[in-house]
Amino acid sequence: MNLYKEYIKEIEERKGQGLHPKPIDSADLLNEIIAQIKDTNNANRADCLKFFIYNTLPGTTPAAGAKAKFLKEIILGQEAVAEITPTFAFELLSHMKGGPSIVVLLDLALGNDVAIATQAAEVLKTQVYLYDADMARIKEAYENGNAVAKDILESYAKAEFFTKLPEIAEEIKVVTFIAGEGDISTDLLSPGNQAHSRSDRELHGKCMITPQAQEEIKALQAQHPDKSVMLIAEKGTMGVGSSRMSGVNNVALWTGKQASPYVPFVNFAPIVGGTNGISPIFLTTVDVTGGIGIDLKNWVKKTDANGELVRDENGEPILEQVYSVATGTVLTINTKTKKLYNGDKELIDISRSFTPQKMEFIKAGGSYAIVFGKKIQTFAAKTLGIEAPLVYAPSKEVSVEGQGLTAVEKIFNRNAVGTLSKKALHAGSDVRVTVNIVGSQDTTGLMTAQELESMAATVISPIVDGAYQSGCHTASVWDKKAQANIPKLMQFMNDFGLITARDPKGVYHAMTDVIHKVLNDITVDEWAIIIGGDSHTRMSKGVAFGADSGTVALALATGEASMPIPESVKVTFKGQMASYMDFRDVVHATQAQMLHKFGGENVFQGRIIEVHLGTLTADQAFTFTDWTAEMKAKASICISEDETLIESLEIAKSRIQIMIDKGMDNKNRVLQGLIDKANQRIAEIRSGEKPALRPDANAKYYAEVEVDLDVINEPMIADPDVNNKDVSKRYTHDTIRPLSFYGGDKKVDLGFIGSCMVHKGDMKILAQMLKNIERQQGKVEFKAPLVVAPPTYNIVDELKAEGDWEVLQKYSGFEFDDNAPKAAARTEYENMLYLERPGCNLCMGNQEKASKGDTVMATSTRLFQGRVVEDSAEKKGESLLSSTPVVVLSTVLGRTPSIEEYKQAVEGINLTKFAPSHKLLVG
């Protein structure tokens, strides 16, 4: 009983951390526990019963298989356990969510013992996590005249697993808790530097917000035992930033309800709110858990007698409170009137939180149950030869006569499945779509694997063209946590059918490439839909949606996703870029000009940015689409000229071929299939059969933004504005300032070039700048450290072939070595250039960080508090975001440069240029 002894030892260690026993996923450990349960005289028997009943993970975990087998033996009378009657054994099977439990229930339901078969059938009627093999068994038994199989199918056709669930309460009482003022990032709810613990839900829950906040939530629960705690972003948006199921899991752990009495630390039904609503990616995750997200609108922009905005001394709109949601306020959510009340006083209409589809998610305890339920109902009705009765709310289908289609509307219409209308669908329609490309990253991947196990999935859907498991978020440091988690993750995903960054058998060299860069390369059709486990899953080909680990799991298992077709905002350009400007400045200026045009309203939030970049290839265009996550957009689409798209596809083909040459293709030859698809797409464009994706000329947009390149006359910087008197204005990504704002004397403590916001051209700009500075000043001397992390190994290889890597080596004081990767995070930096392993590095903030209180100048996308740099006792850490040349020069000078110094440093350097297309990019 060695494993059991080790488990008991671990339990004692966890007690010291204030933790309960870790849930069991090992079959070997559970079999030792089962052996002790069978031994009625065993001293550990009582504890073993508790572990077996209450602490075993369900789904397709190895432990679930062992548990289901033992329960089957009890039901058949082959084993007798006084504490687990056959009836109780059936109840336990009903909470195991598919996989081995379904196999056992089908064995029993289709067996010869009528009484047992009847009981098993009644349990099966409540289950939704069935896959093709399970349904095939039921169908075969039905066709062979099995009455129990017919009974099960008739129940499934009526969707009784859904209709017999309790109705949603008409009134839900909540007590408010303000988690913070301003935008609340998922990093506050699930910090990146605690990513290693996400699969240990109880341990990870201890990092949500602060220990003090957790105690305040517990106090509210004790004071209001009949109410749910609603977590609120006051004067901000809830859940901006990264796509984190772990963030919602933590909120649910502290404020939700236990999903099953037999599964620990898996909660559902969290309730969250925000003055400016919920970030789209976070709201999807809330839906996964059957929760409620409310756009509170409790602060509004003040207007004068003429209806004009009233602004403060900085030109910012002044907000005034409509109603209070101060911590401890008791409110009532009425799900029938779909209104929010304080006592009898109506506060706001919240019908958007209670659409028919969202009501179904809440009733079923999450969106997965609805997705799988619809699939089972359709299967059962087809097998019985009947029409499925209308049980679920019909999808909303919006079609406007005479109105053209935006780019995203065209993509959704092409990929839609199960629609009733034969007309083209417009924004606002609810659509189920096939997913072409799926990405899983390494800090959420462990949770994706757990979700796949919990929904009993064992193999990737054949609908998916390609899927990739990255290793980028843990690339910086190969520490004990990474060594324990990453090989296990890669093995699981490799077996599941994904292309993996690390080969479990060690056949090819580990790739730590940034996930969205790889997805950008393996997307070979601009009509594709991509789902990825990172908020920066924003491709410059196709339309990509960052998603929580659960939605990624669902896409991998089913090849489908469901969502409304979003509205679009059209972004076009006029004028000419100044010769000394970089395209990153255009990206920042787009946000600044948009906010100015619409009086501070972010029209991008929750919508598609349809950006007409025409002449930029996929690598360069990715800089724009990547940033759209920080613009709070739902996604973005690049409209490209035909020849530019062909060039991008040729680049993609060459990089996919490199992956094949490294040995990364699998037995299904997925990567070769992508090259074949790219060749087909190129042929379609060249022949004129199917030109590059264009919106219709008469498409309707929520708003249109024309960016004036002529007025962008100096580099632009996104500033966290850490000392703004209004706390809600800090860390928002909306404060965009010109370089001259800093007067050429703001101290910079560290520079970072890397992660997903840079491309190969940025690495070449870095090399050119270093040569330029040496030529102008006689030598390159860094007055602040410069950390460089290329996005991919392919880029490193290309730089080596073209001579640029040699330049970087010349000026570097550290170069990564894959044969001896760092085993510990760097805590101190010297004033020199660090060439780090490809991957996320400082941008992720879970391994490497700047020193506390530093001012960091970075090409990153992240300026959230504590992400790249934490506060010190004396000074707030700040991460300013800028172009590659600004970062380089800031580290050489140890301060922000003046505009004159900047112009001199970039003289003659080939910066990332952009010229608006002169072609009319419409269909």
Protein traits:
single chain, alpha/beta, Serine Threonine Protein Phosphatase 5, Tetratricopeptide repeat, Aconitase, domain 4, Aconitase, domain 3, 7-stranded mixed beta sheet, 6-stranded parallel beta sheet, 31 helices, globular, 2-methylisocitrate dehydratase activity, metal-binding
Descriptive notes:
Strand 22 (568-574), helix 23 and strand 23 form a beta-alpha-beta unit. The chain is built from 31 helices and 33 strands. It is α/β, with parallel strands linked by helices. The radius of gyration is 28 Å and the shape is globular. The longest helix is centred in the last third of the chain and has 20 residues, at 642-661. The protein folds into 5 domains: 3-129, Alpha Horseshoe (Serine Threonine Protein Phosphatase 5, Tetratricopeptide repeat); 171-354, Aconitase, domain 4, CATH 3.20.19.10; 403-565, Aconitase, domain 3; 568-708, Aconitase, Domain 2 (3-Layer(aba) Sandwich), CATH 3.40.1060; 744-897, Aconitase, domain 3 (2-Layer Sandwich), CATH 3.30.499. The N and C termini lie far apart (69 Å). Strands 8-7-3-1-11-12-13 form a 7-stranded mixed sheet, covered by helices on one side. A 6-stranded parallel sheet has the order 30-31-29-28-32-33. A 5-stranded parallel sheet has the order 18-17-16-19-20, sandwiched between helices. It is 37% helix and 16% strand. One of its GO terms (biological process) is tricarboxylic acid cycle.
